[in-house]
Write a structure and sequence with these properties.
The protein has 461 residues and is mainly α. It is built from 13 helices and 4 strands. The strands form 2 sheets. It has a two-stranded antiparallel ribbon. It has a two-stranded antiparallel sheet with strand order 3-4.
Length: 461
């Protein structure tokens, strides 16, 4: 039972830690999009195009790596053509004199997003009614447009022209670095520090993509899963038989008479105990349920109800990242004084249900209310010197603490070594007690000086 419990517990712990580590390895563009919005400048179409393209390359890298590890994402994008055509409007074309919003143009949204109706365009930023500049002087038809957001046809040709036998999810990251370097040369990124910060955030993003790919590549050894499964089920299969009891018949066992040829001996045992083995069933429910939990979360990128919602995560990442680098770029609310501008300390209000929490004292530390010694000698500040410092009593580690590798010394003090400094020859010390008020207050000092003098004489050769 001990082996089964330890192996199952270690296995479940390994699977749960791996499950959470895979979730934290999913790349999120939140930090990267903030750096892009702060580093890549320009309110014109070129600056807007650079910011949207940079964050689109980052989202493309995450889609490619999730497409390699998640069944749901692979079913959504089974080929690279689906990555290019993600969200392309398949409805009838616009009327003559009007055009649609294509990938990479203003008005784009995430794949699978709700249909949008755009009004006529004007120069500058979007008006209160939602009209947005086209960048080409044309008019976007008041029709429903859904743009792709990951890869263009030219980018697909570049992607497929690079021959490699390995996964190529890292290619958009290289495009990102080249485009960032070009933006630095063009002055869109104003200094090398901003470029360095941008590339550092990209490297963190790429590291998560790489870690997610390696978690899918290097899985838990199958033999370990088989050993734990066989150990759990075989243990309880044997327990169902081995934990049954046989009750003997009441009374003394009668002396056995000689048996005649062909006669069998009469059994002196009673019937089997057919009561339900409650403790065994509870153990089976706990250990088998524990094992089932590990089996359910060992692959969180499947299609079960409890697996990661990777498709919704892709939609969220693209929508939020494009919104932050485009619509929110230099689109700030006016700065105003807060409500606590003229107050010394800010105290937000409480509701009636939480007003009692405001009466609780704040935690100031575990030693804040600790009472110190009333002896004024213990609070006198002195310089750290061998003469002013009193030798501390040597401590001994108990034998049991040595076996347990206890790091802290035991407070037990040997009477023989009381007052002895480790490494010095042993000399008898007089225990210095606090002088009584009616006695000689200088007697203890004279005893201490005599003790120190005897130590110096003993230390001389």
């Amino acid at each position: 039972m001990l082996c089964s419990a330890s192996s199952t517990g270690f296995y479940v712990t390994l699977v749960v830690n791996r499950w959470w580590a895979q979730y934290t390895s999913i790349p999120l563009p939140d930090q990267l999009m903030c750096v892009i919005s702060a580093s890549v400048h320009g309110v014109d179409q070129r600056g807007r195009l650079l910011r949207r393209t940079l964050i689109r390359y980052a989202n493309l890298a995450s889609v490619l790596v999730l497409r390699s590890v998640s069944t749901r994402v692979l079913k959504r994008f089974p080929t690279m053509e689906h990555v290019v055509d993600a969200g392309v409007d398949r409805r009838p074309r616009a009327q003559p004199g009007q055009r649609r919003c294509h990938a990479g143009e203003p008005g784009g949204g995430p794949p699978g997003a709700r249909t949008r109706t755009w009004a006529s365009w004007e120069g500058g930023r979007s008006n209160p009614r939602g009209a947005r500049p086209s960048g080409r002087g044309g008019v976007c038809a008041p029709t429903h447009c859904i743009s792709s957001g990951f890869m263009s046809q030219e980018e697909r040709k570049k992607f497929e022209s690079l021959k490699s036998d390995f996964n190529k999810y890292w290619i958009p990251c290289v495009w990102f670095t080249n485009l960032a370097a070009q933006a630095r040369r063009d002055g869109r990124i104003r200094d090398d520090i901003a470029l360095c910060l941008l590339l550092e955030e990209l490297n963190k993003y790429r590291a998560k993509c790489s870690m997610l790919f390696h978690y899918d590549w290097i899985s838990i050894p199958l033999v370990y899963t088989q050993v734990v499964t066989i150990a759990v089920y075989s243990f309880f299969a044997l327990s169902l038989v081995g934990r049954q009891f046989v009750e003997p018949e009441a009374g003394r066992a009668k002396p056995q008479e000689p048996l005649e040829p062909g006669q069998e001996a009469a059994s002196t045992m009673g019937d089997l105990d057919m009561y339900v083995p409650l403790t065994t069933l509870l153990q089976f429910f706990f250990y088998a349920g524990w094992l089932k939990v590990a089996e359910q979360i060992i692959n969180p990128f499947g299609e079960d109800d409890d697996d990661f919602e990777t498709n919704q995560l892709i939609d969220r990442n693209l929508q939020v990242s494009l919104l932050s680098v485009d619509d929110m770029y230099q689109n700030l609310p006016p700065a105003e004084k807060d409500l606590y501008w003229d107050e010394d300390s800010a105290q937000p209000p409480y509701t009636v249900a939480t007003a009692a929490e405001a009466l609780r004292p704040s935690f100031l530390g575990s030693t804040f209310n600790l009472r110190m010694s009333d002896d004024p000698e213990q609070s006198v500040q002195v310089e750290a010197s061998p003469r002013s410092a009193r030798p501390l009593p040597a401590t001994q580690t108990p034998l049991l603490g040595r076996f347990l590798a206890a790091g802290a010394p035991s407070p037990a003090i040997s009477l023989r070594t009381f007052g002895r400094v480790r490494g010095t020859p042993w000399t008898p010390h007089v225990l210095r007690l606090r002088a009584e008020e009616s006695g000689d207050p200088e007697a203890a000092d004279r005893i201490e000086e005599a003790s120190v003098r005897s130590e110096d004489e003993a230390g001389e050769p």
